[in-house]
Amino acid sequence: MTNFNVLLFDEFETLDAFGPAGIIGKMQNTYNLEYYSIDGGTVLSSQHVSVNTRSVLDIDRNIRSILLIPGGMGTRKLIDDNVFISKLNELSQNSEFVLTVCTGSVLLAKTGLLQGLAATSNKRAFNWVCSNAPDVDWIKNARWVNDGKYYTSSGVTAGMDMTVGFICDIHGDKIALDVCDCVEYIWCRDKNNDPFAVQ
Amino acid sequence: MTNFNVLLFDEFETLDAFGPAGIIGKMQNTYNLEYYSIDGGTVLSSQHVSVNTRSVLDIDRNIRSILLIPGGMGTRKLIDDNVFISKLNELSQNSEFVLTVCTGSVLLAKTGLLQGLAATSNKRAFNWVCSNAPDVDWIKNARWVNDGKYYTSSGVTAGMDMTVGFICDIHGDKIALDVCDCVEYIWCRDKNNDPFAVQ
Questions:
Q1: Which of A126, A181, A192, B11 has its CA 20 to 30 A from that of B44?
Q2: What is the ipTM of this complex?
Q3: Is any Cβ of chain A less than 8 angstroms from the Cβ of B31?
Q4: Residues 6+ apart with CB under 8 A from B198
């Protein structure tokens, strides 16, 4: 069993977190979903969802884990929060894979771990993203990007396509399509098909 | 402002609720998102999300409202819970529109309000759905169905397509496509296009 740890913070974008979680949740024999925040306690999404979380200090380092970092308006403050970024760096290094959605990729970039690697983010905030992390090879025309152990996706619902893509890479086509069938998801399986990049 | 009330219960399917919420949340000048359960308090989704909710008794009847009913394993018990179904009937009657996702449509059907109306539900549980509410005109081949003030969708992620369809019906094409752009959602806009019905 691998832990799939979702890192939440105030003003996270609801679907950035729960889109991927809703998909990974269909592999309950492989992944155990847990929701964390830096200090634990209640976290409020931009869509008013109040979620109870555990502190990241409770993460068991002896269990293999994957980290999911959503985006959202909360990232605007967090990119300048050295304590948050330092803890995120440690969490990311201790995770087998790190998946980010939307502006969650900027938080990851701020740790330095994306330096020189290819990544993407959402298209409405793309200039902000690039200017805040110029050392990353930002790919504009991509639904999602995989480089090493890092998976980064475009805005919000692109995170679901990335998550199915991740499942496909790790577990193969059949399992990925079974998961899509479970949640009746019409998967955009071409990671280079980004209808929102040209706007 | 219209309230968009999401009704949660233990073992709700995470994406059934937060898919539509993530989309409606982009119309924050039109819809105010709130999360309720029958008794209020903490509700746990099937994907381990612990959500703080208000009691449905707190719903202000003087404000126009829309009700969203997710599905999930929790519906298996609730269809036989007369107190729940009776409260759901009242809530539905007091709502301008009622949207259901997946097996949430069976909960709504149990109130009697879908009698003789067209509706759909998810395809993996379709026989269970039909046998538990034989007085509904269940449409198998549909991503979502609208009949009167009721919108019902197929499984899980079909709820997002339905929600954009609802926005399109009420607010028009441009706003619906703007919302898709905001969340970078590749909308399946043909409600009769159901790739999961034939399986």
A1: A181
A2: 0.94
A3: no
A4: B141
